[in-house]
Write the structure tokens for this entry.
Amino acid sequence: MKTLMGNAKNINLIIGLLILISFLLLMIVSFFYTPHDVTAMNVANKLKGPNSENWFGTDEFGRDIFSRIMKGTQTAFFVGTLTVTIGVVFGTLIGGIAGYVGGWIDEVFMRIMDALMAFPGIILALMLVAVFGSGIVNTSIALGLIAIPSIARIARSGFVQHKEYEYVLSAKLIGVKPFKIMFRHILPNVSSPLIVAASVSFGVAMLAEAALSYLGLGVKPPDPSWGRMLKDSQAFLKSAPWYTYAPGIAITFMVLGFYMLSNAIRDILDPRSN
Amino acid sequence: MAYIIRRIILFVVTMAIVSFITFAVFQILPGDPIRTMLGTEADEVQVETLRKELGLDQPLYVQYFDWAKGLVTGDLGESIRFSMPVKELLMDRLPVTISLAVITLLIVIIVAIPLGIFVAKRQNKMSDVVFSSITQVGMAIPSFWLGMLLILYLGMNFSFFSISGYVPWTESIAGALGAILLPALTIAIPQIAVKFRYVRNAILEQLRLDYVRTIRSKGITEKFVMYKHVLRNSMIPILTIFGLITAEVVAGTIIVEQVFALPGIGQLLITSIGYRDFPLVQGIVMYITFAVVFINFLVDILYSVLDPRIRLN
């Protein structure tokens, strides 16, 4: 049983990292080079199947799908990073204050977080996008706001537990400022579950961005988005099935990479969770 | 009883904050909703008349209480685009979304529970790795893409399935099934891939307990142990999971209705965002969120009835 867990952990870590590093490299390269111009249209070359020139085929405007997948990694990582940053910064701040200060502040903060979590995620996202408008930054902000409550809950439970520990009591006794106690003393000790949650949030954010873009309410042109590529490919499902494979597989692998990584991190940081 | 009252209070407080957030978010909107409704040609008098008529000249808190009072009495306001009560529009679309959600739930229950039992009986290294991989892929695959794949492989090859649109049950049961089955599978497959492991874990937890060892030592067949004792005791955690699934299925219908062009509530929501029909958006958001919170509330109550220990916590 032990060796099995060891293997499963390593499999998650190895495959997860392999997937994410590949996408990261693809993104870095895409800043300088793509095999074809991602926006150049060539109607004579439209909806070609995969071939030596266009590895993943071409879309309805004759654009190279592989190049567009490469460019799409930029959008995916941008949305993921901004979303997770907003979620972790504000989630930790809110959860940390609620847990450390306690009392009515805790009660008010957490009731609001509960109410935010009562909305189905996609409903909240659609409502925010309806108000703020779509586009890559607005989408990320909306998804970031949605990520806050679950991170706040995790942070709160850590702070509640640690504020009673002796190292915190002694720090208080010698007059360390509350803010410093919270973020210099407690935070590093409660960061493991937050790191795991951040890694999961990356995957969740990328899935949500793809869904919003599929609905036509997420990332707007000219920013390339795998979700919107899928939407566009739906009209050509029968005549050009390869068009739908590439972005679908890209999203699935990217999200899978983050989920596997988060599983591996959880096992490494907290072996008891098994 | 005290437990149930506490849950009811929590439910009311949650819905009050939810309604407040939903109201507040739409106050951030730039521009004057009245001018948007009337267009650029309207004169000052028309604008002010309509503003009074809709109560938008009142202070915000009065507007909120008016709106919230409407919610409680079932009046969700009026759609700008259709000039119809939001409630009527919702009622029109409701049968589609409910059919989809119910068929999806049935598929998940029919497949996930037997699968969980099957897997719990065969616990070994290989199967653990295989099943946890299935779960991870099930979580990672975008539901709308899965829907497109089902259209590509099933919808286009078997004429039984319709890949777009809805057929009412009263018109043709086969037609309705053909229209609902693929979207239902689209939501159900990832749910099954994730949730059968919860069923498995709930059963394995029971199998470890002393009473199972005792009844086994009495020489009772393994089948009897599983179906008469273990399964019954695992139903409590399994029930909670299905409360969760219901909420996720309702959320899942929104996107999947788009993939299969089903005229349900989700599709109404997406188009009303496109038309900036905000009273309708607000109404749908409140309605769906209410449904989800209410289902969770019911599951909590049922849970405490089945397992009285919960009430003491």
Residues 2-73 of chain B form one domain. Chain B touches chain A through 50 residues (CB under 8 Å).
